[in-house]
Amino acid sequence: xxRTIFEQGLTTLQDDLLVMGSMVEKALSKAMHAxxxxxxxxxxxxxxxxxxxxxxxxxxxxxxxxVIATQTPVARDLRYLLAVLHIGTELERMADYAEGIGKISxxxxxxxxxxxxxxxxxxxxxxxxxxRRSLDSLVERDIELAQQVCDDDDEVDALYDQVFRExxxxxIEDPRNIKRATYLVWVAHDLERVADRATNIAEQVLxxxxxxxxxxxxxxx
Length: 221
Known about the structure:
Elements: H1 2-37, H2 40-71, H3 75-108, H4 119-140, H5 143-173, H6 178-210
Helix pairs in contact: 1-2, 1-3, 1-4, 2-3, 3-6, 4-5, 4-6, 5-6
C-alpha cells in the first residue's frame, strides 16, 4: 500500500508538470500574438498571469519536498524527484521570458515593429515545440527524443544570430532605428533562452534515464 501511494504521488507530480508546461506554452503563444498584433490587452494578461505560473511552480516544489520527506524514496525515485524540481524551475524561467516579451510589447505600445516579423515567429514556433517535446520525452522516458531537443537548440541559436545581425545592420544604417531594433533583439534573446531551458529539461531526461546529460552511453558488448 505505501508503494502504491508513493507511485500515485509521482504520477500527480508529473501531471502537475504537464499542466505547468501547458500554462507556459499558452503564455509564450499569447506573448507572440501580442507582439505580432500589437494587442496590448493580451500583453497585459501575459504579465499578470505570470504570478499564477509562479504559484504553480511553488506548489510543485512543496509537493516534491513533502514526498521526499515522508516517503523515503530509493535512489532512482529520488533522482526523478530531483529532476521534477529542476524541470519546474526551468518552466518557471520560461514563463518569465514570456512575461518579458509581454512587457516589451507594452513598451512598444502602438508603434509597429521595425521590420516584418518573420524569423522571430519562427524562433517562437521552434522553441515552443522544443519545450513541448522535452516534456513528452519525460513522460515517455524517450532519450532519442530528448537528444533531438538538445540538437535542435543549434537551429534556434542560428536563427538568433541571423536576427541579431540583421537588426544590427538596421541600427548602423540609421541610428533612429536603434530603439525599435533593440526591442526585437530583446525578444529574440528571450526566445533563445527559452530554447536553452527546453534543452536543460531534455538533459534532465537524459540524466534520469541514462545517468548522463549529454549523450546516450554506448553499450559494451
